[in-house]
Structures are given as structure tokens and as C-alpha cells.
Amino acid sequence: MAATPAAADTTTMYPLHIASVAYDAASRLNTLDICLPRPVEQSAPSAVWVIYIHGGAWRDPLITSASFTPTLTHLLQHPVHSALIAGTASVNYRLSAYSTHGTHPSAPGDFARNASHPAHVSDVRAALRWLRGKYGVGVHRRFVLVGHSCGATLGAQVVFDDEEEEEGDEVGRPVALVGVAGIYDLLGLVHRHEGVPAYREFVEAAFGAEEGAWREASPVEMAGTGSPLRVVVLAHKLQGGHDELWERGVEVARAVGVALERVVT
Fold it and tell me: Where does the BD-FAE-like domain lie (predicted)?
């Protein structure tokens, strides 16, 4: 007797949100939040993944993958942009030391919160490798890489890294990079804000005290390396304060929408 076909799963509700998925065992912060607008097989072949990297000066424990939620809400509510998205992932990564944080100071022995460059970039690459293996992101599915503040820095560092990938270490290449209020010149940032010690503090926490290292890690010094991108959206001077951009999500969603409309054909 012929086998009875398995019944389709009609119990899962979409959009499907999957929180705190571990992509690497390096630390408790190596997780990502996934959203599938619909079953993966029902997305159009041209639909892309949107991968978000949060900001927070590489060290703020209160700015996490959840900061993408307002932007995601706007994207899913948009009648055109939602159809162009096959899935989204918001990436957490290890943080740099922040022993003076008002409510959640880092401890010296906390591996998850004493990271320095290039650990943050390595974590983002590890997340992309996990998504590549799990959902074919960068293989069967193209993706747009989005970052706010230092998240935009990390996205640019991943994109402009011209080192050859070893077999098994491939992360794929985004079809677009969207940077919102990004930091692309670390040395210039600190020098422009010499009267505000916090800028030097968080850059030194992430990159060390040597200014030469800041220059080498700055996307403005790396730009032009690697293969070209189809679309780059660098959003500055937007409506709202620095943190208000991700808190409201409207401007971030608009910038992502520009990239989606240009790459999904």
C-alpha cells in the first residue's frame, strides 16, 4: 500500500519569530533572532534575507538584537517590502568592556563582555556562516547587510575584508550594504570629539590605544577592496536622534526599503 503523504503543517503561525538562536559557542551573546515572514519555500525566488547588526559603541549591554524589532515591524507592515523579504536575522555579538556602565557594568572575567577587535567582526562572520548552513543565505538566497552605528562599521568591515576565505569559512557576499548613522573613520570620530572623553573610551575599549590600529580598522581605509557591491546605502542626517533611529525604526526601514527595491528584480 502506498505511503500516505505527510500532512502540511498548518499549526505554525507566521510571521514566525525565533529568538536567541545560538550560532556559535564562543559566549552567551553569540545568538541571533530570526523572523520568517512565511514558510521558507513560499517566498519568491528573488526574495532576499535582511541581516541586521545592532549598534551600541561595541559595548552597551542594553542595545541588543531586539533593537531591530521596530524596524522589522515597519518592514513587515509595508505591502511591497514585506514580499521582498525571505527572512531576517538580527545578530548579537560579544561586547567590549564597559566597567563604568550605570546599571550593567562589565566584570573583568566575563568573556562575553571583554572582547576587542577583531572579535566583533569574527562573531558577525560566524553568524553569517550559520545562516548560510541553515537557510542557504549567501548561497541560494541573496542577502542585504544592515547596521546601525557601530553595527554599520561591522557590516562594512565584513564587506571590505579582502582576505581570501578558506574553504568552509565562506560567508557569502551581500547584494547591498545599508549603513545607518555609521562610524567609518574611527580616528576622525575621536579627534572631532576630543572634548567628550566617552568617544576615546569606547574606541580604545574596542580597538586598543594605538591610533594606527584605529586607522587600519576604519572602513574608509578599507573601502575599494574586495568585489564591488550592487547597492550601498549610507544614511546620515536622518530625522530623530542617534538612538531614536532604531527606537522608532521608521528611518531604518526606509533605508532598507531603498536597498530592497533596487536589488530585488
Answer: 32-220
* CATH code where residue 180 lies: 3.40.50.1820
As to burial, measured by CB atoms within 10 angstroms (0-12 exposed, 13-18 middle, 19+ buried), residue 262 is middle
Residues in the chain: 265
Residue 93 within a domain:
yes
Residue 2, pLDDT score: 47
59 within some domain: yes
Greatest Cα pair distance, the chain, in angstroms, is 80
In a domain, 1, yes or no: no
Sheet of 143-148, strands arranged across = 16-22, 31-36, 85-91, 48-53, 143-148, 176-180, 231-235
Return the closest-CA partner of residue 180 out of 84, 126, 257: 257
Domain membership of residue 228 as a residue range:
16-264
> How many domains does the chain fold into?
1
Task: Compute CA distances 102 → 30, 51, 228, whole Å.
Answer: 23, 30, 42
CA–CA dist 82, 257 (Å, integer):
9
Which residues of the chain fall short of a pLDDT of 70?
1-10, 162-168, 223-231, 235-247, 265
Structure confidence at residue 216 (pLDDT): 95
Answer yes or no: are the C-beta atoms of 56 and 34 closer than 8 Å: no
pLDDT of residue 3: 46
* Any domain includes 42: yes
